[in-house]
């Protein structure tokens, strides 16, 4: 223990608690550093810490030992040089977009995107005068044609939410690099177990750590990983002022979940294969959107790019919205709830939930219909899941 200051009064001693100093060993798991700030003996060291991301720990809004462990863990999995953990997935996305764009800039985005991201892009247009052009995520030619002198970023999703279209990361990122613009890839659906976008030329990878990385539906968090230090430091300086910081306890829970990510992804993917294959043959289903099916437009690309096809997919019910509402009211094992990536299976209706902010035209552009249901497949026994879906369809 450090100096307990026994000469002080009880009121003071209750504030200045003894701190353990561990020598000769180390903890097996990363401890939770649940503190808002850190104490310095040298003012110069404190001043230095507030000016650079690799300095001493100074304040929770900058980073924290538990949070930094998570940043290093995920950036290591993704093949990046550094990461910035945030309080949510949208926090990570907004940190990157707002940290790199200014009024008058132009962004090229994949036409099929998560509804929250699409809504934020609309905010950028309305509030900041940033223009957006949408192109297919697998068409580098369309990207080249869309680029302007003021284009700064291209934004992609490895596997799109919810229609599971796979982006041509090698082609799109190479085109972006040739044109001198940065590529940002949301890798939440794939995780670094199925794909590592930086290996395919991406400059920045973002995650909602709420999903598969934490994996147990008890965390809200996000993370951005950077391929080079210059871009990382540029965004870091903005991030500490934005204040979308990660909480140490949430970071600790995510680290705990990260240790079983590979095992869980294997089960998510195998369960999804069984359900997608059987749903594709069901008379109540018009179409199934999972890149592991040969009928999916991204099937060949997914086979080249991904080591697994993911645990989330969408399917269109033949009866439209009414059929979708009946189905979601009838499931018993699957849960009607937002989010994804936990151990339990969740279903929702994208047009009225995750993508509710999109206009009818934007929904059509994304491929989302009134009868589209998204299922985030958990790790339950697959036959139990199929029995539940079959009775709900009946």
Summarize the topology.
Layout (H helix, E strand, L loop, with lengths): L9 H4 L29 H7 L15 H14 L3 E5 L2 H12 L5 E5 L4 H14 L2 E5 L4 H7 L4 E7 L11 H10 L3 E5 L4 H4 L9 E5 L13 E5 L2 H14 L5 H11 L2 H20 L4 E5 L9 H7 L6 E6 L2 H11 L4 E2 L9 E3 L11 H7 L5 E5 L5 H12 L1
Parallel strand pairs: 2-3, 2-4, 4-5, 5-6, 10-11
Antiparallel strand pairs: 1-7, 6-7, 8-9, 9-12, 11-12
Helix pairs in contact: 3-10, 4-9, 6-7, 13-15
Beta strands, count:
12
Contiguous low-pLDDT stretches (5 residues minimum) are: none
Query: What is the number of helices?
Result: 15
Largest sheet: 7 strands, mixed
Q: Ends: how far apart?
A: 65 Å
Approximately what portion of the residues adopt beta-strand conformation?
5-15%
Estimated radius of gyration: 23 Å
CATH topology of the largest domain: Aspartate Aminotransferase, domain 2
The topology string of helices and strands comes to HHHEHEHEHEHEHEEHHHEHEHEEHEH
- What is the name of the CATH class of the largest domain? Alpha Beta
What would you say the CATH architecture of the largest domain is? 3-Layer(aba) Sandwich
What order do the strands of the largest sheet run in, or round the barrel if closed? 1-7-6-5-4-2-3
Q: Quick recap of the structure?
A:
Keywords: Lyase, Pyridoxal phosphate. The protein has helices at 10-13, 43-49, 65-78, 89-100, 115-128, 140-146, 169-178, 191-194, 229-242, 248-258, 261-280, 299-305, 320-330, 360-366, 382-393; strands at 82-86, 106-110, 131-135, 151-157, 182-186, 204-208, 222-226, 285-289, 312-317, 335-336, 346-348, 372-376.
